[in-house]
Automatic annotation (TrEMBL):
Active site: H175 (proton donor/acceptor), K179 (proton donor)
Protein task: Catalyzes the conversion of 4-hydroxy-tetrahydrodipicolinate (HTPA) to tetrahydrodipicolinate.
Residue ranges occupied by any Dihydrodipicolinate reductase N-terminal domain in the UniProt entry: 24-148
GO molecular function list: 4-hydroxy-tetrahydrodipicolinate reductase; NAD binding; NADP binding; oxidoreductase activity, acting on CH or CH2 groups, NAD or NADP as acceptor
Residues given in the record as (S)-2,3,4,5-tetrahydrodipicolinate binding sites: H176, G185, T186
Stretches assigned to coiled coil: none
Annotated binding of NAD(+), by residue: G30, A31, S32, G33, R34, M35, E60, G119, T120, T121, A145, P146, N147, F148
Protein name, as recorded: 4-hydroxy-tetrahydrodipicolinate reductase
Lineage: Bacteria, Bacillati, Bacillota, Clostridia, Eubacteriales
């Protein structure tokens, strides 16, 4: 992995007249976390991104290179997001924190004129609407993507298509046991895409009695059920199961490592620079 000075030096030589446009300065919040560390590596390795700030409460004061075991990178972890954005010249903030932090971080970024790429799931509807209004008012791009893995986006797309013909469907999502929100953001996005296609259709007869509360999962509008499994050993997995007369169809996606999300994160970092307002879902930047 190149050191920061080495990389920017090389780019400065190659593109010295255009460097400000070509290199995107990226700040990462949640830098010490599972996703944050993967994003740090990705931003340090890409030719057109420069890591300018790393924000987390853990490992404060530590060089990100110590955290990653790569040797010094010249960026220290700080817990003060507003200060980091004000002093680092960040173009983009990539946020992988937690449901309780994501709205405040996104709003802080927009207030500072920095474009957010939000991977953190679990933002409330009210907070989402506030972010939409602020991004519009500031005329800044913002990408909010519950899943950055291409396979997951295809799963959602195929599920929406299948729902036109097989409207009875349930979702089972499985994640590691450290996950703070349930259902997953991906499951909610999948349900929304299915509901858009099947319109007024109402699923289920509601005749069953739950002998254990929650046994039938969480209920979305239209009676669409989501079941959340949390166990060590899982990363991120989902099955969308359709039922028809004498048949079932299962669409399944597995993220077996967090690298699966990184090409999508880079795509969003690049795209957000030319957007105005919020794009919810990476599929809107990938598919027609
Ligand atoms: N959109 C996508 O494709 C994906 C989204 N996620 C989501 O990303 C989020 C993070 O997941 P993980 O990395 O597994 O969690 P994690 O718990 O490993 O990391 C979260 C990090 O954020 C830090 N943090 C919390 N509040 C903060 C704040 N206000 N400012 C700065 N740092 C703060 C924590 O100290 C921790 O180090 C979750 O919401 C998860 O659902 C995870 C994987 C893929
Ligand atoms: O917490 C995770 O790990 C993941 N969160 C996202 C979600 O809630 O959908 C994306 C992916 O499933 C991994």
């Amino acid at each position: 992995m190149p050191g920061r000075e080495e990389k920017t030096g090389k780019l400065s030589r190659c593109f010295r007249y255009y460097r400000e446009i070509i290199v995107i300065k990226v700040a990462v919040s949640g830098a010490s976390g599972r996703m944050g560390q993967e994003v740090l590596k990705t931003v340090l390795n890409a030719e057109d991104t420069e890591l300018c700030a790393a924000i987390d409460f853990y490992n404060e004061g530590q060089d990100v290179g110590t955290l990653l075991g790569t040797g010094p990178q010249g960026v220290q972890i700080t817990s003060d997001l507003a200060e980091a954005l004000a002093t680092s010249g960040a173009d983009v903030l990539v946020d992988f924190t937690r449901p309780q932090s994501v709205a405040a971080n996104t709003i802080t970024a927009l207030q500072a004129g920095v474009r957010p790429v939000v991977g953190t799931t679990g933002m409330s509807r009210e907070d989402f609407e506030q972010v939409v209004d602020l991004a519009q008012k500031k005329r800044l791009g913002c990408v909010i993507a519950p899943n950055f893995a291409i396979g997951a986006l295809l799963m959602i797309k195929f599920a929406a298509e299948a729902a036109k013909y097989l409207p009875h469907v349930e979702i089972i999502e499985k994640h590691h046991d450290q996950k703070l929100d349930a259902p997953s953001g991906t499951a909610v996005k999948t349900a929304e895409a299915i509901l858009e296609q099947r319109g007024e259709f109402k699923q289920g007869l509601d005749v069953e009695e739950e002998k254990i509360e929650g046994a039938r999962g969480g209920k979305m509008p239209g009676g669409l059920r989501i079941h959340s499994v949390r166990l060590p050993g899982f990363v991120a997995h989902q099955e969308v199961i359709f039922g028809g007369v004498g048949q079932t169809l299962t669409i399944r996606h597995d993220s077996i490592s967090r690298e699966s999300f990184m090409s999508g994160v880079l795509l969003a970092v690049r795209a957000v620079m030319r957007l105005e307002g919020v794009v919810y879902g990476l599929e809107n930047l990938l598919f027609e």
